[in-house]
Amino acid sequence: MTSIPNIYENYLPEHVQPSANRNSQGQYLPQPYPNAGGHQAPPYPGAAGYPAQPYLNAGAGTYQPYYIPTPGPALPPTQVTQSNVPRRKPDKSCNPKKKTYCCVISLFLILCVLGIGVWIIFKFMKDIPTRHHCPSMVTTCDGVSECTDKSDELGCVRFSGTGSQLEVYGWQSKQWLPVCYTAWNKALAKNTCRQLGYRSFYQTGKTTEEQSTSLVINSTKQGTKIQGLLSSSPGCTTKDTVSLKCIDCGKRIKTASRIVGGVPAQLSKWPWQVSLHYKLRHVCGGTIISQDWVITASHCFFEDDSYKPSNWKLFSGFISQYQLLGATRSYVSKIVIHNSYDSDTEDYDIALLKLKSPLQFTDNVKPACLPTYDQQFPEGMTCWITGFGYTREGANLISNILLEASINIIGSNTCNQRSYYNGAITQRMICAGKLSGGVDSCQGDSGGPLVCEVSDTWYLAGVTSWGIGCARINKPGVYARVTQLTDWIFTQMEANRN
Length: 498
Description:
- This protein is of the alpha+beta class and 498 residues long.
- Helices cover 10% and strands 24% of the residues.
- The chain contains four helices and 22 strands.
- It has helices at 99-125, 186-195, 412-415, 486-495, and strands at 157-160, 165-170, 175-178, 203-208, 214-217, 230-233, 240-245, 259-260, 263-264, 273-278, 281-288, 293-296, 312-316, 328-337, 351-355, 382-387, 403-410, 429-433, 440-441, 449-454, 457-466, 477-481.
- The strands form six sheets. Strands 16-17-18-22-21-20 form a six-stranded antiparallel barrel.
- The longest helix has 27 residues, at 99-125.
């Protein structure tokens, strides 16, 4: 039985009160919220289909644990034991007249056993991850794939600044550099965005760069990746560098929550919000970032079956779990969990879902913008959270309607103070909420968006991750900091384009 985290001792039933982890004063030491379920509503094991009124009463009367069940070890592959391997039995009736017949039968049985053995070996060998090889000396980001998995040519492109300046890692200079606007064209813009996993490009132009060094397009070079077409050279005659946006994002129709203290949202107000359904039940939120990709939290995948794409459905373009028939339904083809995700600390709590079919953008279905790697969301900035999660701590029902709430960015120095999270906030995390309590994300909102508006454009600043309780004083919500994870996002989108 998984122990209940000590952070819930003030309201857990007596029979599940913790009995360890006290400090020298006899007080319970709180454990990081991730093992308490983050902001996740684990699926009810008995759910077998859609209820008559979908989801409002899903799990009613059941105990909702405040922890993420630790994924158990994968079941070992079926073994062929001595008891179920066809064995040749001695034939006591085999006499010289039947010698030929016996030999044929014996040979047949031997071939059957060998065939079964070969099949078993093939079945299990194909499930072993392919070992990728790289030469001892590899030149990264030169446009030439030297590793068998092409990893040496991934993650070579990023965006910076308020103008979405294109930057490429220069293999000669060993540093990130802007691209000279001279000789830039729409074909290069399209190919660069397609390289990053987008379907085309949205907008390109020029911006001014004060530094003198930039990468210059070399017309004599051949290749499909942008880094293979560039050279480190002082040949750029101007200070104009490339600005590139791969998708029209962060826009919505202006209108006259697991969110605690939130209010109902209007349709099309948060068109990037997604509801992730695991085995026919809402479990987490998500954010649309392109026609093919949705961002959510790693801790939303909490058991072996949850890593199977076929067990998930995504709903977008709606605001009520009662109106799923009018929502856009999508299916998942691939789940990508951050390889550094730590379920104990909730560090790197981000995941990507690739859709089987591209989304068709409408007024109700649109992407939020990914921030540039150096974009700032300063302390005190007002941002918004949305979701279908619990409306109070300790509830056992999700919200039927999409809720929204405005909260403020809280600096990491503040959030790491002893009276708040006592050093648990890493560089991959951002705090947001109200220190006075009353407004927060909660179970069921996990993976959903924390978005901030900059110049009439909405950017995904955070992914709902964890917190101690919901809407408690001095315990704001903690979100995965997207600016620290954009390199990983683009690398995965590029690696999984096909």
